[in-house]
Design brief:
It is a single chain. Helices cover 53% and strands 9% of the residues. The chain is α+β, with helices and mostly antiparallel strands. The protein has two domains: 9-106, rbstp2171 (2-Layer Sandwich), CATH 3.30.2220; 115-158, no CATH class. Strand 1 (9-12) and strand 2 form a beta hairpin.
């Protein structure tokens, strides 16, 4: 078995949790195929075009990462059309999130990130108006915070500070 694809994660589908797909991290050559396929597509340079490219990149990545559980060298889907016929939008979103998590866990090194980058991130998170996030951005923020937070997020966490600051505790 090639290095990097000797193991897989089994991801349940959002639309049918009893169905679990095997997913492997891509090798560099496979990832380059994804990037080349996205670069070759015709799309405008506006926001809808960028969203189209982003979605195509997710689909290209998944058709290469989803494998047969008994033989991780074989893809489950021959092409994007076949995958799109069998998976829902929420399945694709969840599979992509899980793929990204799997990739980061496979190489969680933070070496080489300058301390000023960490300070910039910290500052941006503190200055962000969490109440103005769209539903998609809020979902991404909650997943991010859940991944790094030592304790589970509560309903009165970020975004709901106006109610928590107006309540008092009795002494």
């Amino acid at each position: 078995m090639r290095l990097g694809q000797a193991v897989c994660d089994f991801i349940p589908l959002t639309s049918d949790p009893e169905v679990r797909l095997a997913m492997v991290p891509l090798l560099e050559a496979e990832y380059m195929q994804v990037l080349n396929a996205v670069a070759a597509m015709e799309a405008s340079d506006d926001l809808p075009g960028l969203q189209l490219r982003d979605r195509r990149q997710a689909q290209e990545l998944l058709i290469r990462a989803i494998r047969e559980p008994d033989d991780l060298t074989k893809r489950v889907y021959a092409d994007i059309d076949e995958m799109m016929e069998q998976l829902s939008v929420s399945d694709v979103d969840e599979l992509l999130d899980n793929y990204n998590e799997m990739s980061y866990q496979a190489s969680p090194r933070l070496e080489g990130i300058p301390p000023e980058e960490f300070e910039n991130l910290k500052k941006a998170l503190q200055e962000m108006n969490w109440s103005e996030l769209s539903s998609r951005a809020w979902y991404a923020a909650k997943r991010f915070l859940s991944a790094i937070s030592p304790s589970p997020l509560m309903d009165n966490s970020l975004g709901f500070t106006s109610t928590s600051s107006s309540t008092t505790e009795s002494e």
